[in-house]
Design goal:
By secondary structure, this protein is an alpha+beta fold. Helix content is 52%, strand content 15%. The chain has 16 helices and twelve strands. Strands 4, 5, 6, 7, 8, 9, 10, 11 and 12 form a nine-stranded antiparallel beta sheet that branches. A three-stranded antiparallel beta sheet has the order 1-2-3, with helices on one face. α4 runs parallel beside α13 and α9 runs antiparallel to α10. The longest helix has 31 residues. The chain is flat, with a radius of gyration of 28 Å.
Amino acid sequence: MNPFSLWQRYQLAQRPELWLGAIAVGLALLNLSLAWIHTRNADLVAIMGLCWAIVSYSVWTRRQGLPLRSEPYSTAAGCLLIAWAWYKSWVMPDYDPFVRIQPFLFCLGLGLLASSAKRLGTYRRELGVLLVLALPEGILAQWTDQIINISEVAAQSTTAMLWYVGVEVKRQGVFVLLPGGGIEVYRGCSGLKAMLELLRLSLIFLVMVPTRGWEKLVVPCVGVGLAYGVNVIRLSVMTLLAASDYQEAFHYWHEGEGSNLFPVLAMLIFAGFCVFLLHRKDTPKTGSTSSAPATLPRWRLLTVAPVLAGAVVVQSGILWKAMTLDRQPFQFPQQVPLKQATLNRSQARPGQQGNAYSEILAQHQYQYLVQGLDLQIDMSYVTGTTGDLIRFLENYPIADQALQPLPQPQVRQQGANYYAVYTHGDRAYLSACLDPGGLGTVEEGHFIHNWNSHWYLLGRDYIDDRCLWMHLSMPLNQQPPQQVFSILESNWLSWHEWWRNRMPNLSL
């Protein structure tokens, strides 16, 4: 064996950039793998991958001037921070917004390992990018909803655009109506999600690229404006399709593959705008100062090498645990006590896919005997809901019976809980959505107002869009509806009291 080759290998093993680079690659792969395993959300993984790529490119272009000399306390702090992020990944039962702040913590830990706490400012751009990635989109959306009704504003803009091109159009709240039909602009179609994503990308651009004062204001405005404007065009097209009764084309642009084309178009236009700004800038090339490559002291080698070995072992275990985790679907209990009622029948029912956003994960039907009358209770565990009764009835039947035409429910309130009563055919109904906070809602505004928002580090989801839909129904038997409603209300109080602290865990 060539001894010179051994000496070269020894010198190579003392290069800190190789160890740190290997650790960074492992941490990035862990983060992206967890995001994909737990969410299957290609948009989220793509954004996270883009941020990792930007950070990697930025560090690579500045590699010659980076001070790779840490000290013991900073190295220990970096190891502890990475170890804590590993621990959070290990105890993560399912999707947790922590995966979005995890890259920032990993980068912060690597910065401490590489250059000590005194020189963390060297990585301010990279840390800034990953901090923008960690911005809580759900909380931003909730704050936006509290300031402005984005659905109504989008409906106003859609109406104005159609009127400007000569279409006979009118608006009623969030409804855009043409003579042949129309659409309802609810929150999922308002373009808010696309606006927040382009706002995130514009902030990343401002962090990485030196800009003038006016550009710091213009870039986010252009990003948000593009997302909003392109979505208004989409809403206008959908309104024309709905009025023309082209149902297949309408569903393609509403829930099918066509629904993703407009956000991609807005992102491409925004990317072109950013490239235009970059070409306008004079970026003189600065000669890089060559310096002798740093070498690892023995104490740092004894620290960094176990971190790299631990990265391989721990991350392999985390990924194996995440991929093999047995996620049992939620199952309703066979018996639920109900005061002054006798259970006759209890039957589980399969879930249903409603649209691209909403899904019934589990269903169950209970039948009781109350005062000689049959009381039927249909329970649905739904995700991706907004707690709106009419929208639920549009997407899902109750006990395989589609309530068409849609009823006109009366919304009632008891304390902080809302529920709706209505009749359809020869039956009286009481419906309510039990939100994750244990409150009853039947309208989107109430549900959004009750949304649970949590900070990332608590390990809980910041937006919880699940619901236990409860549908109590009884035959009218030629009785006045109000009399049957009173029976349903008294039983709903007992039913709600039993369920309000039994919402399924978020990990299910």
